[in-house]
Amino acid sequence: MSSITVLLVDDHLVVRSGLRALLGTEPDFEVVAEAASGEDAVQLAQALSPSVVVMDLAMGPGMDGLEAIRRIRDLNERQAILVFTTYDSDADIVRAVDAGAMGYLLKDAAPGEIFAAIRGAAVGRSVMSPPVASRLFQQLRNPDEVLTPREAELLGLLTEGLSNRELGRRLFISEATVKTHLAHIYTKLGVDTRAAAIATAIRREGMR
Amino acid sequence: MSSITVLLVDDHLVVRSGLRALLGTEPDFEVVAEAASGEDAVQLAQALSPSVVVMDLAMGPGMDGLEAIRRIRDLNERQAILVFTTYDSDADIVRAVDAGAMGYLLKDAAPGEIFAAIRGAAVGRSVMSPPVASRLFQQLRNPDEVLTPREAELLGLLTEGLSNRELGRRLFISEATVKTHLAHIYTKLGVDTRAAAIATAIRREGMR
DNA sequence: AGCCATATCAGCCAAAAGGCTGAGGCCGCG
DNA sequence: CGCGGCCTCAGCCTTTTGGCTGATATGGCT
After folding, report:
1. What is the count of residue pairs from A and B with beta carbons less than 8 Å apart?
2. A105 contacts A117 by C-beta, under 8 angstroms
3. How many angstroms separate the CA of B176 from the C1' of D14?
4. Which of A77, A173, A196, B105 could form a disulfide with A191 if both were Cys (CB 3.0 to 4.6 A apart)?
5. What Å value separates CA B145 and C1' D25?
6. Helix (H, G, I), strand (E, B) or coil at B57
7. How confident is the model at residue B54 (pLDDT cuts 50, 70, 90)?
8. How confident is the model at residue B138 (pLDDT cuts 50, 70, 90)?
9. How far apart are CA B149 and CA B161, in angstroms?
10. In this model, does residue A208 exceed pLDDT 60?
11. Helix (H), strand (E) counts: chain A
12. B155-172 as b/e: b if 16+ CB within 10 A
């Protein structure tokens, strides 16, 4: 009976057709459209109201996945959105969830996991890949280690290679304040040099 | 007549089936097997001698793409191997080419490009995505900016967040030597702090 | 043999970063 | 209304880094 309609969003054609092929093996799924950009995704989600939007976070130029999630939620609060991406970055997970994603799946998930996640999302359940879940739990267990928004901002600029002076100028704060923030960041990240902070930041936010 | 036999290697099921679906639309391609790991790839390449091996560099745990390329070339010098990956990292491109790849395609390539690249590889021609090609040319044009092996090694450890002292210990050289190498690395990368060096190193080697 | 790239090391000095202590203002929550 | 988290800033002192100049050794290429 009523099948689950799915909108696929990914900037890679091969991923879209792979997913389409995969979902085609299950009788209750129906891929109603594909989008290669955030813009298209928003438009198609509005036009078609699919049961579930399955989308990658990394998108080419233009609107990124997170922004697309927000826009889609703005149009329809109840739209189920499932993130389907390659990397399990701490920041991305958190951001995706609070942008309104129902679940977070990694691309190396087994077919069964993918099916279950989509079916779950369709009925309003949250699903996530085990590695993703464990990261989230860790964040909840160690709230001490979570950076404040300002610290995260600093850390972001830090990974651009800026000096303390430049950081200060960029953020309209004194160099003293920059050093204070950095000291906090270091203790939270468990490092004691900016180099190590950059390294762990990029590896944490980046991949693996 | 004689169709082009293809071995697909990618750790993501969706990518494999997407590619299979895509290649299925062209009558002259025949996907003879899929491999999800480097180990399987080597074995299948040897057993089936496909016209072209299309593979991702990023592979889960175990043998990575580069290693798999080398192994396959060891077994059969003439085997055509086409790298099909998401990111165009300077280092990866160079390494893939000298590991023996015939071409280097990005996953966001248009279907036509993909077909052309595989057909080209099958007859011994080298093909690469435009952005990839431009990077290679840039490397050839600016040999001054190419790091020596030792410098590259240092840079690698630098991105782990090590201090000069630690770098020295790790490489069994004095801190003075470390500083000399770093100075050279900085001028070659066009930066003047280790933080910036780490940042550009990771962004260059990393992705985008 | 001479030359060049690479790798190694030293010393000196200035600039940047890091550790520590203390402190004021703002805001939300009980 | 007080407590605590967050953001802001200062001063002081040590360590680390970076810039510069110069030197030795090795190995390959001409």
Report:
1. 105
2. yes
3. 20
4. A196
5. 25
6. coil
7. very high
8. low
9. 19
10. no
11. 10, 6
12. beebbebbbbebbbeebe
**Minimum-distance CB partner of A108 among B12, B19, B197:** B12
Scan for tokens 């990575």, then name that residue. Answer: B64
Highest mean pLDDT among A81-90, A91-100, A193-202: A193-202
Q: Which residue has the higher pLDDT, A49 or B130?
A: A49
Measured distance CA(B15)–CA(B8) in Å, rounded: 9
Q: Nearest nucleotide by C1' from A183 CA?
A: C18
In the chain, the amino acid numbered B63 is M
Residue with tokens 């430049």: A166
What span, in angstroms and rounded, lies between the C-alpha atoms of B20 and A17? 9
User: HEC states along A51-105?
Assistant: CEEEECCCCCCCCCHHHHHHHHHHHCCCCEEEEEECCCCHHHHHHHHHHCCCEEE
Tokens (6 digits) for B36: 């999800």
The closest of B169, B168, B191, B187 to B179, measured between CA atoms, is B168
Mean per-residue pLDDT, B7-22:
92
Angle CA(A62)–CA(A64)–CA(A68) in degrees, nearest 5?
Answer: 110
pTM, 2 dp: 0.74
C-beta neighbour count of A139 within 10 angstroms: 14
- Tokens linked to B46: 């040897």
Q: Which of B11, B17, B25, B154 to substitute to test the interface with A, most A CBs within 10 Å? A: B17
Is the distance from CB of A178 to CB of A157 less than 8 angstroms?
no
CA distances from residue B129 to A115, B118, B135, B180 in whole angstroms, order as listed: 34, 12, 10, 37
Three-state DSSP class for B81? strand
Tens-digit pLDDT profile for residues A102-119: 888 888 888 999 999 999
Cα–Cα distance between A88 and A104 in angstroms, integer?
9
User: What single-letter amino acid sits at A136?
Assistant: L
**Residue whose Cα is closest to the C1' of C10:** B176
Query: Measuring CA to CA, how many Å separate A108 from each of A24, A169, B54?
Result: 18, 42, 18
Average pLDDT on A80-90 reads 83
Return the closest-CA partner of residue A93 out of A52, A124, A134, A63.
A134
Instruction: Please give the residue of chain A at the shortest CA–CA distance from B24.
Output: A17
A74 CA to D15 C1' distance (Å):
52
